[in-house]
Amino acid sequence: MIPFLFAHGIIRSTNFNELRFWNWDIIKYHLFFLILTANNPKLMIEKDKVKIGVISDTHLSGYDAGLARTVAKHFKDVDFILHAGDLVDLRVLDIFAGFEVKAVCGNMDNVTVKDNLPEQLIIEIKGFSIGLIHGWGSPLGIEGKLLAKLGNVNCIVYGHTHKPSNYKENGILFFNPGSAVDKRFAETRTIGILEIDKEIKGRIINI
Length: 207
Known about the structure:
CATH superfamily of the largest domain: Metallo-dependent phosphatases
Strand order of the largest sheet: 1-5-6-7-9-8
Shape: globular
């Protein structure tokens, strides 16, 4: 284990006397993100239909029992979860314990999150490509900016606006689950589900 940690830059020394003083909670997170942020992962799921939980803009400083109950209720049978950024704090990911998660950072995330999560991911699954990105700037025309940034994909999953979106344009599904915790820019708190079969379909869930 120690050579693995050293080879991936997670620790800077193999001297045991120095390792005693490392914060192993931080090392645990680095190991988690080594898997979590693999660039452009190709997911091999041997199922006719794939179900994905989608969440964004959690804006929390740590674990939240209420959101954990929501996740357990609505994402209990998903194959994995996408988080479209603005976690704010890495400890928010404890809410998704037991799930496979792919996540990106957002403009409101702290330095630790931005150091450990990419700004965007392209996920390939069952012949479809999903671009995962948070978004930036004015909500006006955000979809065009994201498309220009991500290139040719079948679906763009994004956040930032706190307003849910679920529509197709020129064959591309634009899917924003809204905010799971904030009601400043929308009437309700929302999350989402993507289902992949012969096409990608999305639905928004009011929570």
